[in-house]
Amino acid sequence: MPEVQTIVQNQEFDILFRVEPGSLPVSVVDFYLRFDPEYIRCIGIENVESPLNLRQIEPVIDNEKGTVLFGAFTLKPPPEDLFSLISLRFKALEPIDETNIELITQGHPKTLMAYAGQSTMGSDVRKARVLIHPDLLVADLPSDELFKVSYEADTNTGLVHYTPSVKGEVDISLKESDNRFTHALHQGVIYPGFEYIFIFDFASLPKGRYAVVLKSANSSREVFLESD
């Protein structure tokens, strides 16, 4: 699974779990996963083509405890190379700087791999660090005092001044009103306490009506301006 996953509150995301056999093949896997249900919910299982095609434990999702239990094996010649085991879909519930999705290898139940009754479990068991940014909903999008867009006729330029009040992930773009083109001004995380200034030159663009679009994961706002 990926070591770092950066997402936005209320966003759904998939994590694919893969197995890399060591010196021995792998014919059976017991899978026990833990996450913090205050911040993450497991909402489904995506089918993958796995050589471990038989189930000794059907997937059990417990969103109160924050666990997923699953077990698979094969009666065919076991895989000796990297293979996909299972893909899980999660939903981010609350913002947090970091929370973990990790395989548990101690206690009972636990994650293990085996072949012919012998454990093939290595020490390289990774966990996913999940960073959840706040979702800037419509009510949180900045007022005119915080998100200012203006056109300067003397220099034929447009100006955007943006002072966010909360941390979040946004896209800011310049869009021609007939959707003939879109130019990205900013894509990524913004932080409170900073003023973001974007300048764009209309000299190479046709005269007309344009929109500066501020977009978060689940909402957007447009401010229109005319160029001479």
Quick summary:
By secondary structure, this protein is mainly β. It folds into 2 domains: 4-133, Immunoglobulin-like (Sandwich); 138-227, Immunoglobulin-like (Sandwich).
Describe the structure.
With 228 residues, the protein is mainly β. The chain folds into two domains: 4-133, Immunoglobulin-like, CATH 2.60.40; 138-227, Immunoglobulin-like, CATH 2.60.40. 0% of the residues lie in helices and 56% in strands. The chain is built from no helices and 18 strands. The strands form four sheets. Strands 1, 3, 5, 6, 8, 9, 10 and 11 form an eight-stranded mixed beta sheet that branches. A four-stranded antiparallel beta sheet has the order 15-14-17-18, with no helix packed on it. The radius of gyration is 24 Å and the shape is elongated. The termini are far apart. The model has no long low-confidence stretch (mean pLDDT 85).
Mean pLDDT: 85
- How far apart, in Å, are the first and last alpha carbons? 52 Å
Count of the separate structural domains: 2
Unreliable runs, pLDDT <50, ≥5 residues?
none
State the helicity in percent bands.
Answer: under 10%
Name the structural class. Answer: mainly beta
Number of strands: 18
Question: SSE order, as H and E?
Answer: EEEEEEEEEEEEEEEEEE
Number of helices: 0
What is the CATH architecture annotation of the largest domain?
A: Sandwich
> At the first level of CATH, what is the class of the largest domain?
Mainly Beta
The 3D shape can be described as elongated
Major sheet size, sense and barrel closure: 8 strands, mixed
Radius of gyration, rounded? 24 Å
CATH topology of the largest domain: Immunoglobulin-like
